[in-house]
């Protein structure tokens, strides 16, 4: 949410031109992230040897253009969520540099709405946390929900909403933070296929209406090909960039469009090749 993840100044990567920086919302340069594993849980107790650190990401360099939607795909545990945390300033890199122009705000995995609050108050939460007075926050949230086709749900609590609607409210809340960059971690991962397709189409329309820079973590290469301008494929842990695929297809897209099928096949090939290592 809004207060965290603030990185106020543009990244200055060695050798990057000012013009390049102006076009980039997020830059990662040689990023490495290592987790110490506490108490010898992984190896120490079983083998008597010292615990080994977990290298989640290694040598990750990416420059993400303003206003683009970039999908990050990769096998489970390859460091995708860690990458989003780094971009949002929720973790720090152990080596290399991470920077974002302005705020980057995370919508984490899972169902993150407050169960006791209405959709309106959930959507207003980002503004409230940022210090917006209640009446003003609710008014802006109401306007946003209506603009995004969610106006009829304002008074509903999450348990009265479908999973797809809950995730849309959570996206609306993230947009209401005003952050120029939003990081969506598997936003539709728990939805059934039809609901997911509807939510994907809604997100495409929403971003056409309110363009942002988006980092979208997904396990689903079809989702990546449907939504993204670019697909970045990570290797199994430690995550490294093994493919960087421009998508270059107009919206709206359908899963059966030949271009979408071809891009998806390339992403799957890259994932397979990285897995075989
Ligand atoms: N706080 C932590 N302490 C120790 N290890 C961690 C910590 N956070 C993540 N890891 C490990 O780092 C690796 C990368 O984790 P991360 O959650 O970023 O992967 P991911 O690609 O998002 O996984 P998934 O697709 O399953 O959500 C994993 O092996 C994970 O177990």
UniProtKB/TrEMBL annotation:
> What is the protein named?
ABC transporter ATP-binding protein
Annotated GO molecular function terms are: ATP binding
Pfam families according to UniProt: ABC_tran
InterPro entries recorded: AAA+_ATPase, ABC_transporter-like_ATP-bd, ABC_transporter-like_CS, ABC_transporter_ATP-bind, P-loop_NTPase
Organism domain of life:
Bacteria
Presence of keyword Nucleotide-binding: yes
* Keyword annotations of the record: ATP-binding, Nucleotide-binding, Transport
Q: Where are the transmembrane segments?
A: none
Which residues are in the ABC transporter domain? 41-261
């Amino acid at each position: 949410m809004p207060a965290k993840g603030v990185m106020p100044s543009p990244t200055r990567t060695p050798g990057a031109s000012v013009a390049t920086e102006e076009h980039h919302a997020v830059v990662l340069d040689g990023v490495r992230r290592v987790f110490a594993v506490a108490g010898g849980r992984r190896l120490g107790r079983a083998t008597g040897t010292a615990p080994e650190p977990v290298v989640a990401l290694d040598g990750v360099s990416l420059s993400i253009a303003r206003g683009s939607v970039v999908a990050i795909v990769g096998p489970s545990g390859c460091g995708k969520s860690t990458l989003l945390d780094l971009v949002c300033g929720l973790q720090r890199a152990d080596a290399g540099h991470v920077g974002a122009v302005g705020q980057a705000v995370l919508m984490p995995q899972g169902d993150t709405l407050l169960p006791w609050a209405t959709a309106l108050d959930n959507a207003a939460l980002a503004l409230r946390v940022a210090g917006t007075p209640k009446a003003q926050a609710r008014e802006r949230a109401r306007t946003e929900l209506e603009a995004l086709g969610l106006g009829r749900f304002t008074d509903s609590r999450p348990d009265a909403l479908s999973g797809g609607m809950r995730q849309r409210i959570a996206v609306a809340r993230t947009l209401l933070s005003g952050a120029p960059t939003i990081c969506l971690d598997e936003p539709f991962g728990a939805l059934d296929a039809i609901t997911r397709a509807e939510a994907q189409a809604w997100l495409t329309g929403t971003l056409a209406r309110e363009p942002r820079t988006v980092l979208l973590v997904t396990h689903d290469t079809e989702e990546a090909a449907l939504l993204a301008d670019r697909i970045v494929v990570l290797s199994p842990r430690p995550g490294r960039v093994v493919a960087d695929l421009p998508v270059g297809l107009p919206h709206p897209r359908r899963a059966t469009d030949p271009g979408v099928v071809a891009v998806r096949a390339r992403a799957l090939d890259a994932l397979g090749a990285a897995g075989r290592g």
